[in-house]
Amino acid sequence: MAALKDIKRKITAVAKTKQITKAMNMVAASKFKNAQTRMENFRPYAGKFMDVLSSLALRVSPDTHPLLAVREPKRIRVICMTSDRGLCGGFNTNLIKATERLIASKVKEGKEVALIPVGRKGRDFFRKKINVLNERTDVFGKFDISLAVQIARDVIPPFVREEYDELYLVYNEFRNVSVQRPAVVRLFPLPSIGQDEDVDPNKRIDYIYEPSDEVLLEKLLPMYVRVLIFRALVETSAGENGARMASMDNATRNCEEMIGSLSLKYNKARQAAITAELMDIVGGTEALSKG
Amino acid sequence: MADELILEIVTPEKMAFSGKIEEITIPGTEGEFGVLRGHASLLSSIETGELSFFRDGKRAHYAVSTGYAEVTSGRVTVLVETAERSDMIDKERAKRAREIAETKINKLSKEDDEREAAKAALAKANVRLNVAEKG
């Protein structure tokens, strides 16, 4: 009977796992919905901001701003965004791999690379491998624009002081629930604004600028950095929960399958046991009647 | 429509306000300024401060942080990183933030980047407390 009992125990265990993965799937789904609303709410802000920034960039040549200064890239920093928690499939692995590839290519060119991890998983992975600065962990549970402000404050002053020459950002680009893709963008020097964007000439209004247009642009550029960082944060967080939803859904399905095949095995074993018992009884009575 | 004034306050988290107003006072970098309907087109940066506007005979107060205001005919778009209406402000939290910022400023050297950040935090906490009083 030992085999029967073992199978029964296994079924109970898998059923418990299924309960957990199902609950995690539901939690991730609700978090995902929040993240998606956030992304939608952020869109008008980013859109309006870009309109104003590019119309301003058309008026003033922004090349003189320190955030746009192109230097020979010797020292490079990379922001790597990952989630704080695991159990979300290949989500973090993909982000970390993309970061590693970037770092490897830069190191090969003889450059000095330092990493700024945002999110625990990336920090844990890179901590012992590479110089890690300004780490931010356990941030994705609850964050707002002030996180982007803090990260921007970590990266802007050293760049302006010429402590490093280029900054890259690795984050998760959100496509839809099931498609997560790591994206790499260069943050500093900021790519020139306005030239590659089509600004409707009718939208160009001659404003009174307060303070002057140059000073205004100087104020808006750091804000632009924060917009880019915040967008990356929101998309990464949406991607994390999307990925967790998908992987927990998979896990739940696998549990169901396992329970199915285990039940079959259990029933077969029970049937076999009953048959064996019957055979014993029949054998016993036959032996008695003969005697 | 030059005879009305529409205000939109946009933050990264949400549309904090959208609707018709009569008059608005904005904490610009060069000083506070007011906008009435028919104002000339203007683009001004905003510093941490108090923004207030008049609507249906009542004055509403908001604590806002960095951003800008864009005024075009009959429309004011205020784009700021945070905006809180006076009655939504958590006074206790603002007080705590003020204390933390004050101790930080006293502790840090003048060259530290964090000191500037702490100063900004202190200014923000003070504005929030002032605005909260008006709720």
Question: Can you identify the CATH superfamily of the largest domain in chain A?
Answer: ATP synthase, F1 complex, gamma subunit
Biggest sheet details of chain B:
5 strands, mixed
User: Which CATH architecture of the largest domain in chain A?
Assistant: 3-Layer(aba) Sandwich
* Largest sheet report of chain A: 4 strands, mixed
Output the CATH topology of the largest domain in chain A: Pyruvate Kinase, Chain: A, domain 1
How many separate structural domains of chain A? 2
Summarize the structure.
The complex is a heterodimer of chains A (291) and B (135). Chain A is α/β, with parallel strands linked by helices.
Features:
heterodimer; A: 291 residues; alpha/beta; Helix Hairpins; Pyruvate Kinase, Chain: A, domain 1; 2 domains; elongated; B: 135 residues; alpha+beta; Single alpha-helices involved in coiled-coils or other helix-helix interfaces; five-stranded mixed beta sheet; 2 helices; 44% strand
Structure description:
- The complex is a heterodimer of chains A (291) and B (135).
- Chain A has 291 residues and is an alpha/beta fold.
- Chain A folds into 2 domains: 59 residues, Helix Hairpins (Orthogonal Bundle); 220 residues, ATP synthase, F1 complex, gamma subunit (Pyruvate Kinase, Chain: A, domain 1), CATH 3.40.1380.
- In chain A, 61% of the residues lie in helices and 13% in strands.
- In chain A, strands 2-1-3-4 form a 4-stranded mixed beta sheet, sandwiched between helices.
- In chain A, β1, α2 and β2 form a beta-alpha-beta unit.
- In chain A, α1 packs antiparallel against α5 and α4 packs across α5.
- The mean pLDDT of chain A is 90.
- Chain B is of the alpha+beta class.
- Chain B folds into 2 domains: 82 residues, ATP Synthase, domain 1; 45 residues, Single alpha-helices involved in coiled-coils or other helix-helix interfaces (Up-down Bundle).
- Chain B contains 2 helices and 10 strands, in the order ββββββββββαα.
- In chain B, the strands form 2 sheets. A 5-stranded mixed beta sheet of chain B has the order 2-1-9-8-5, with no helix packed on it. In chain B, strands 4-3-6-7-10 form a 5-stranded antiparallel beta sheet, covered by helices on one side.
- In chain B, α1 packs antiparallel against α2.
- The longest helix of chain B is centred in the last third of the chain and has 22 residues.
- The two termini of chain B are 32 Å apart.
- The chains are: A alpha/beta (291), B alpha+beta (135).
- Chains A and B meet through α1, α4, β5 and α5 of A and β5 and β8 of B.
- β5 of chain A pairs parallel with β5 of chain B.
